[in-house]
Design brief:
The structure holds 2 protein chains of 2 kinds. Chain A is about 0% helix and about 60% strand. Chain A is mostly beta strands. Chain A is globular and about 40 Å long. Chain B is mostly beta strands. The chains are: A mainly beta, B mainly beta.
Chain lengths: ~110, ~110
């Protein structure tokens, strides 16, 4: 199956700092999504970004599908940004009816005041 | 905007008992997915339904079964519960299948004692 690797696995930031999270995947994909899992366990959709660049407030994401990676940028980090950030992909050549998301192991972000 | 609804949010069961988790997708979404997230793990795909038919199957134990009803809500039935079934269970929905953005519910936290 498709391999999804996220880096770094852990990240500690001072409030106000910027960061870049990376997601590498091993095959072509139909779908790529970034999620934030908050300390209460909820998975929050951040971006649906199979290709290109998107921005939403202090967050932005870029996927370069031809080179099989995606980046999530967090600027001016806040303590509420703490949690685990997951990248998840849907295999491109998945055949009829196979549209599951495969998740990476996540990046655990801690933002300290 | 309406989101995916899951019930119950928390469930405590004893070993060998049964549990039923319910999922109500976003209105007009025709595809439902179930994922299981163990402690400290990334979410793992269990099963999906498109237009009330099973569309894909992942690492779902034989003790688990699921279905999608005529109103598109879905239920995950879990029997002979084991301690290892303790996890967060997420339901997600999408409009259409391949390449469609998946929207996740808040999850059901199942604890088996």
């Amino acid at each position: 199956g498709i391999q999804v690797e996220q880096s770094p696995p852990d990240l500690i930031l001072q409030e106000g700092a910027n960061s870049t999270l990376r997601c590498n995947f091993s095959d072509s994909v139909n779908n790529l999504q970034w999620f934030h899992q908050n300390p209460w366990g909820q998975l929050i959709n951040l971006f649906y970004i199979p290709s290109g660049t998107k921005q939403n407030g202090r967050l932005s994401a870029t996927t370069v599908a031809t080179e099989r990676y995606s980046l999530l940028y967090i600027s001016s980090s806040q303590t509420t940004d703490s949690g685990v950030y997951f990248c998840a992909v849907e295999l491109g050549d998945s055949g009829a009816g196979s549209y599951q998301l495969t998740f990476g192991k996540g990046t655990k972000l801690s933002v300290i005041p | 905007a309406a989101g995916v609804i899951q019930s119950p949010r928390h469930l405590i069961k004893e070993k060998r008992e049964t549990a039923t988790l319910k999922c109500y997708p976003i209105p007009r979404h025709d595809t439902v997915y179930w994922y299981q997230q163990g402690p400290g793990q990334d979410p793992q795909f269990l099963i999906s339904f498109y237009e009330k038919m099973q569309s894909d199957k992942g690492s779902i134990p034989d003790r688990f079964s699921a279905q999608q009803f005529s109103d598109y809500h879905s239920e995950l039935n879990m029997s002979s519960l084991e301690l290892g079934d303790s996890a967060l269970y997420f339901c997600a929905s999408s409009s259409g299948t391949g390449g469609s953005e998946q929207y996740f519910g808040p999850g059901t936290r199942l604890t088996v004692t």
